[in-house]
């Protein structure tokens, strides 16, 4: 693996045969997460594909010319021709491998794959999930000198990292950008000494053996496990939703609201998430139509009053969506009036869905005692029904799910484990 500058680009990249080029930045958590994967894959594929790195901040002109807008970004070249596909953000090892394999003959790919060897690592505690609960547990454990690894299929932060502003986290007078609050939490835990393995593929979780396999080759074992896998947005399961996800249907206002400047959007939902995110989206969109199944919003009163006073917002109460289609560049949401049973269509530029969450427990659903909604039951120490397996944050059965309650859960679990192990 070699680092280059803009002056080397023509020789090393355009005339370099098969090349993968990593635009990285300093003080960049996604870049740090990518680095060990990139180095590992360079050892595997390096005889066939040239692995290069370039410091984006000192090579801005080239980055702009290649339309590199974030760090890290991986670009793939074959004899000077750039691939139409690039990778950016929290890049997974499997995503890189997919692109590398497409650059080589099938037989050579098989030879390379045969060289992949399994590896094992052992820790005192393994935390699954890097949201506020998992990060707090990691902080307390490493301060107790307990060898801890934190694993996540995404980058640290959980839902907080995609929240526009957090106005109720203690210690901050002014509202904090969600990405900044989660970044600071993550950096504090990392600096303490917790080992990070993030933006990875988790292929197997064995709670009995306290073993997790990531990226299909690395087995991680621990004496204790903390499950902090959080929740994911509920889907409606209606025609067009799956096909148009990311192509007109979004589940993240912070991620996508900026693309709807002076445009019209439909928002599905009426709870806290829907109402609060609608207020944020209204900073961009020219018109918002709220579709809610009940005759009134169920969010907190202050948020409702603010939303209803917004001239950009109109409501369709006691209605539910029945299908999504795209017609002539517009999103068409077919809705049913639950009282009259009449169907009508709403035309917009995009749709946002905020109808609640579900616990991320698919890889161990049948191993733990759950409540009737599928959340993990724990005792006062955050211990689940399985010895040595704890759970914290939004994934557990509890009345309130807030950043502060997740942080409290992580604190309790870490202290309980530290006392037990010491």
Please compute the radius of gyration using only Cα atoms: 24 Å
- CATH class of the largest domain equals Alpha Beta
* CATH fold-type name of the largest domain: FAD/NAD(P)-binding domain
CATH level 4 superfamily of the largest domain: FAD/NAD(P)-binding domain
Report helical residue fraction. Answer: 25-40%
Number of strands: 25
Please tell me about this protein's structure.
28% of the residues lie in helices and 29% in strands. The protein has 422 residues and is α/β, with parallel strands linked by helices. It folds into 3 domains: 2-114, Glutaredoxin (3-Layer(aba) Sandwich); 119-232 and 357-421, FAD/NAD(P)-binding domain; 241-353, FAD/NAD(P)-binding domain, CATH 3.50.50.60. The strands form 6 sheets. Strands 7, 8, 11, 12, 13, 14 and 25 form a 7-stranded mixed β-sheet that branches. Strands 1, 2, 3, 4, 5 and 6 form a 6-stranded mixed β-sheet that branches. Strands 16-23-17-18-19 form a 5-stranded parallel β-sheet, covered by helices on one side. The longest helix has 19 residues, at 403-421.
């Amino acid at each position: 693996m070699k680092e280059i500058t803009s002056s080397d680009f023509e020789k090393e990249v355009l005339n370099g045969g098969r090349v993968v080029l990593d635009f990285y930045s300093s003080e960049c958590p996604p870049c740090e997460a990518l680095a060990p994967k990139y180095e590992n894959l360079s050892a595997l594929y390096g005889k066939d594909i040239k692995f290069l790195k370039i410091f984006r901040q000192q090579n801005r002109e080239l980055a702009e010319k290649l339309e590199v807008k974030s760090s890290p970004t991986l670009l793939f070249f074959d004899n000077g021709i750039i691939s139409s596909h690039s990778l950016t953000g929290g890049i997974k090892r499997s995503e890189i491998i997919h692109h590398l394999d497409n650059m080589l003959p099938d037989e050579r790919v098989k030879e390379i794959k045969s060289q992949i060897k399994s590896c094992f690592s052992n820790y005192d505690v393994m935390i699954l999930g890097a949201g506020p609960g998992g990060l707090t547990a990691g902080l307390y454990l490493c301060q107790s000198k307990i060898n801890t690894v934190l694993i996540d299929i995404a980058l640290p932060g959980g839902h907080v990292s995609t929240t526009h502003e957090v106005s109720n986290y203690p210690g901050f007078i002014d509202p904090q950008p969600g990405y900044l609050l989660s970044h600071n939490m993550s950096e504090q835990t990392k600096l303490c000494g917790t080992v990070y393995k993030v933006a990875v593929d988790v292929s197997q979780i064995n709670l009995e053996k306290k073993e997790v396999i990531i990226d299909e080759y690395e087995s991680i074992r621990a004496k204790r496990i903390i499950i902090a896998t959080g929740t994911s947005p509920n889907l409606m399961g209606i025609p067009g939703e799956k096909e148009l996800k990311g192509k007109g249907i979004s589940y993240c206002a912070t991620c996508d609201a900026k693309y709807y400047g002076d445009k019209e959007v439909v928002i599905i939902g009426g709870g806290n998430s829907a109402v609060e995110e609608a207020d944020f989206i209204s900073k961009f969109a020219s018109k918002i139509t709220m579709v809610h199944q009940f005759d009134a919003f169920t969010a907190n009163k202050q948020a409702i009053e603010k939303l209803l006073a917004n001239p950009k917002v109109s409501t369709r109460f006691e209605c539910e969506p029945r299908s999504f289609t795209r017609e002539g560049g517009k999103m068409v949401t077919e809705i049913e009036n639950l009282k009259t049973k009449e169907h009508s269509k709403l035309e917009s530029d995009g749709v946002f869905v905020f109808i609640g969450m579900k616990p991320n427990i698919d890889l161990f659903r049948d191993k733990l005692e759950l409540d009737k909604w599928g959340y993990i039951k724990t005792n006062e120490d955050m211990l689940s029904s399985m010895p040595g397996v704890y759970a914290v944050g939004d994934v557990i059965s509890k009345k309130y799910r807030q950043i502060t309650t997740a942080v409290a859960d992580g604190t309790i679990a870490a202290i309980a484990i530290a006392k037990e192990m010491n």
